[in-house]
Design goal:
Blueprint lengths: L2 E3 L6 E3 L2 E3 L9 H13 L4 E3 L15 H13 L6 E6 L12 H15 L4 E6 L8 H13 L3 E7 L3 H14 L4 E7 L23 H9 L3 E5 L23 H15 L3 H11 L5 E4 L4 H8 L8 H9 L3
Parallel strand pairs: 3-4, 3-10, 4-5, 5-6, 6-7, 7-8, 8-9, 9-10
Antiparallel strand pairs: 1-2
Helix pairs in contact: 1-9, 2-3, 3-4, 7-10
């Protein structure tokens, strides 16, 4: 797996991050460790989780993913070779939603214990909190950074103007600025008016103005659900409705055309496009088996030409 130098911070990481949402729950503990082993052995060092994975499934409370990662790190003794990110802000059993200072500090301590590490490399504000002043949230991150408990901060599922406002506060107060942005983003474009998949969804699509802000301010960009949970490759799955806009048919036609030209799988082409277009995204790859992770990792070997990227970008425009 290719190693990349990050923007604005002194870190080198793998160009694909491993998403671990269902590790130690829907993906059992042993399978989770097998996937972690395969990813690490193939050059991966960027592991992404969250405090509340997966509190919404009956029988689980949240923290399960962090715990299995912590066990794996302790067993493999490879902490110094990893870049670990986790998140705070969404609710889990016994923990309310929000980005209040006391809550962030408390949940950071809990994540550190579950992960069995001393420092979180990247700590995300998982979801916008309109009830808490941004300055209070940023102050909490500043305290944790000064204590050596986190190294960098990231933002996920915030509107672009809130990201800009937060970074302006950080510049004024000397607080840490968002070094990463993690959003739902894929090859197919969302229809106008659908920043969320549903009214209750917490997963915010990357809007054009958010992408522009991230690019212009050299914020490292991560994308999740890039493969639409298998909808590109599995004919038994429907493309989510918010991606069925006026240009979706043409974009799918060009995607299939480029896929045939490369000889790769359609999922590999989507991942390669995400890493090689102007955003130079770090996609979150995941799966329930080593075979799925293997296919995703091999997307790094798919060489799209400048012409192919341009055709994919401009399809349906």
């Amino acid at each position: 797996m290719k190693q990349i130098r990050l923007k604005n911070i002194e870190e080198t990481i793998s160009n694909m991050a491993l998403g671990t949402m269902y590790f130690n729950t829907l993906v059992d503990g042993n399978s989770s460790k097998e996937i972690l082993d395969y990813y690490f052995e193939n050059g991966g060092n960027f592991i992404d989780t969250a405090n509340m994975y997966v509190s919404w499934i009956d029988g689980f409370n949240g923290g399960e993913s962090e715990r299995i990662i912590g066990e794996w790190i302790s067993e493999r003794k490879n902490r110094d070779k990893l870049f670990i990110s986790t998140k705070v802000g969404l609710p889990m059993k016994g923990v309310p939603a929000g980005l209040r200072k006391e809550l962030i500090i408390q949940e950071c301590e809990n994540s550190l214990k579950r992960l069995n590490i001393d420092t979180i490399d990247l700590y995300f504000a998982h979801r916008e909190d309109n009830e808490t002043d941004l300055e209070e949230t940023l102050e909490a991150f500043d305290i944790l950074q000064r204590q050596g408990k986190i190294k960098h901060i990231g933002v996920s599922n915030h509107r672009s103007y809130r990201v800009a406002e937060a970074n302006a506060i950080s510049k004024l107060k000397g607080y840490p600025k968002f070094a990463f942005a993690q959003y739902k983003h894929t090859y197919l474009r969302t229809k106008l008016g659908t920043p969320f998949e549903s009214i209750d969804d917490t997963r915010m699509h990357a809007t054009e103005d958010l992408l522009d802000y991230v690019l212009e301010n050299e914020i490292n960009f991560m994308c999740y659900q890039t493969l639409l949970s298998g909808a590109y490759s599995n004919r038994n799955k429907n493309i989510p409705y918010e991606f069925l806009g006026p240009d979706s048919e043409e974009r799918m036609r060009v995607l299939m055309e480029v896929t045939e030209e490369t000889g790769a799988t359609i999922n590999q082409v989507v991942l390669s496009w995400s890493m090689n277009n102007k955003m130079k995204a770090i996609p979150l790859i995941t799966g329930s088996s080593v075979a799925q992770i293997k296919e995703n990792i091999e997307a790094g070997n798919v060489k799209l030409t400048a012409d192919q990227i341009k055709r994919l970008d401009l399809a349906g425009v």
